[in-house]
Design a protein that fits this description.
It is a single chain. By secondary structure, the protein is an alpha/beta fold. It folds into 2 domains: 182 residues, Quinone Oxidoreductase, Chain A, domain 1; 126 residues, NAD(P)-binding Rossmann-like Domain (Rossmann fold, 3-Layer(aba) Sandwich), CATH 3.40.50.720. 25% of the residues lie in helices and 28% in strands. It has 10 helices and 17 strands. Strands 3, 6, 7, 8, 9, 16 and 17 form a 7-stranded mixed beta sheet that branches. Helix 8 links the parallel strand 14 and strand 15. Helix 4 crosses helix 5 and helix 4 packs across helix 9. The longest helix has 14 residues.
Length: 338
């Protein structure tokens, strides 16, 4: 028996005792949760039982950011007790996009805790689970699992940094210091860029400074210089922030869109795209960046504790999501085994 959380309806997470299947699928390994973390996508499902127009058909366990210990390698070469980072993208491996390395563009990829995969696959806010062996990446025993759980979202942030073409010496602005903005700050700083950030909360800006930002602007009190940044990473999901990005990016600069900007009545100043010849690039998930993120975490040079807001047990997943939903948390909220 193990403890499992289950999103039954909007803002209604149940906790139950569950049993593992008697057999492990041939291509899977059996895992015991080390640490998981809450994503903005999880919060959309928590609030609305849906995300980006995709509605859940039935209750599901949330969570796609996690690391775990191998309980049964099922013949796949891992050691019992070995810590592994989990890439949650279950790509087909055979289509043209997969063969090109663009697993994020695989039309038939499967993803845990998501309405986009039908039938849904339970996510990682549970104490034990089976997952494809090819998605598990062994790491040194010295790696802290509370830091390794950042691998998936850090890979997403590093992907937009790569898509935007950030390189050493570039001036980069990150709009929004939620978890993804903080991780984009890490990714851009790792490239050698000079990073500034914006956010409504001074505490969030302080967290960004702790992981590599050299300047921060509190929205509504001060604003970054116009036409001064080579790249802007939009990580807030606010159309106001996208307008700020259009103002702050230099002529012929690049805006990397990391957030899912939600529909609203706020007009976006798209004429600046033309007048400034702005390059705008979208970004979803990651490709080779997952391995890069794991390596960056294993290197131990980033202070992930500075962007860790709280830790909860699996049985406390409702409380963890409520903390994220009301905006009190600065950084990531982690989910641990009971």
């Amino acid at each position: 028996m193990y403890v499992k959380s289950l999103l039954a309806a909007a803002r209604d997470i149940r906790v139950e005792q569950a049993e593992m299947p008697g057999e492990i699928a041939p291509d899977h390994v059996r895992l015991r949760l080390a640490t998981a973390s809450i994503c903005g996508t999880d919060m959309h499902y928590f609030r609305h039982f849906a995300n980006a127009g995709f509605f859940l058909d039935n209750p599901v366990t949330l969570g796609h950011e996690a690391c775990a210990y191998v309980e049964d390698a099922n013949g796949h070469g891992f050691r019992p007790g070995q810590l592994v980072a989990i890439n949650p993208v279950i790509e087909c491996g055979a289509c043209a996009k997969c063969r090109a390395g663009d697993i994020n563009m695989c039309a038939t990829k499967r993803f845990p805790g998501s309405a986009t995969t039908k039938p849904h696959i339970d996510g990682f806010f549970r104490e034990r689970f089976d997952f494809p062996a090819r998605c598990c990446h062994a790491v040194p025993a010295s790696v802290d699992p509370d830091h390794l759980t950042f691998a998936e979202p850090l890979a997403c942030a590093m992907h937009v940094v790569n898509r935007a073409g950030v390189s050493r010496g570039d001036r980069v602005l990150v709009t929004g210091c939620g978890p993804m903005g903080l991780l984009a700050t890490i990714g851009a700083a790792a490239k050698g860029a000079e990073v500034a950030v914006t956010d409504l909360k001074p505490a969030a800006i302080d967290a960004a400074r702790a992981v590599g930002a050299s300047a921060g602007y509190v929205t509504g009190e001060e604003r970054p210089e116009s036409a001064a940044y080579d790249m802007v990473i939009e990580a807030s999901g606010s159309p106001h922030a996208y307008n700020q990005a259009l103002d702050a990016v230099r002529y012929q600069g690049t805006i990397g869109v990391l957030s899912l900007i939600q529909p609203s009545d706020v007009p976006i100043n798209l004429h600046l795209n033309a007048l400034k010849e702005v390059h705008s690039v979208g970004s979803i998930l990651f490709t080779r960046e997952f391995a890069d993120a794991v390596a960056l975490i294993a290197g131990g040079e980033v202070d992930f504790e500075a962007i860790t807001a709280a830790r909860f047990a699996v049985a406390e997943t409702q409380a963890a999501c409520e903390l994220m939903a009301d905006g009190r948390a600065v950084g990531k909220v982690l989910i641990k085994p009971d």
